[in-house]
Amino acid sequence: VTNGGKTTLAEKLKKMLPNCDIISQDDFFKPESEVETDERGFKLYDVLDALYMDEMVKSIRNWMKSPTSLGVVMQEPQNTCDNLKDTEDVYILIVEGFLLYNYEPLNELWNRRYFLTLPYEECKRRRSTRVYQPADTPGYFEGHVWPMYLKYKNELEENASNIVYLDGTKSQEELLSCVYSDIIQELKKLRE
Asked: For 32, phi and psi rounded to 5 degrees?
């Protein structure tokens, strides 16, 4: 969901996990001139066609071939604990975005999937505090952003599995603790 805390969570996890990097879907938006406009004049940014998804897949696959190519710094995470011992050979890529699980070529790549949700009013309130380029036009949230979120969330629920749904109204600390603990468990499984 837009403004659900995806980037904040990813950045906090990066600081806590060994050899971790982030690829953000926002970095793959097409220029405004290439984004379609609907009959109401809304730029259709909340659809897969507004993104260079093939380029995103290529970047992820390149990272998988050579995890240090994006400049992952080999350093101890800030909150080193016993759970992270013997992880110097582990590389973690966090891919964050809003339409990741609806793009089939990516679905074979995930070890873990997290999906942040927000109720309509909270999402609208958070969105109204952000400045976008281009700026949201009146009615854009109700007429395009929220309907596209619901559409893609429904598709996701019908087609994807093994998704951990997270309540975006919880504190950043609660969300971080939940996901961090889950990742630690996943790392333990991978080492077994």
From this structure: -50, -35
Mean pLDDT by 10 residues, the chain (192 residues): 96 93 96 94 94 96 84 48 61 94 91 95 95 88 95 89 93 96 89 75
C-alpha span between 57 and 59 (Å, rounded): 5
Please name the helix (run of DSSP H) or strand (run of DSSP E) that holds residue 164, with its range, or none. Answer: strand 163-167
Domains of the chain: 6-66+90-190 (3.40.50.300)
- Does the pTM surpass 0.90? The reply is no
DSSP output for 108-130: TT-S-EEEEE--HHHHHHHHHT-
Angstrom distance (rounded) from CA 9 to CA 116: 10
Nearest to 94 by CA among 6, 156, 172: 6
81: CB partners within 8 A, 6+ apart: none
* Active site residues per annotation: 26
How many helices (H) and strands (E) are present in the chain, helices listed first? 7, 4
Residue type, 139: G
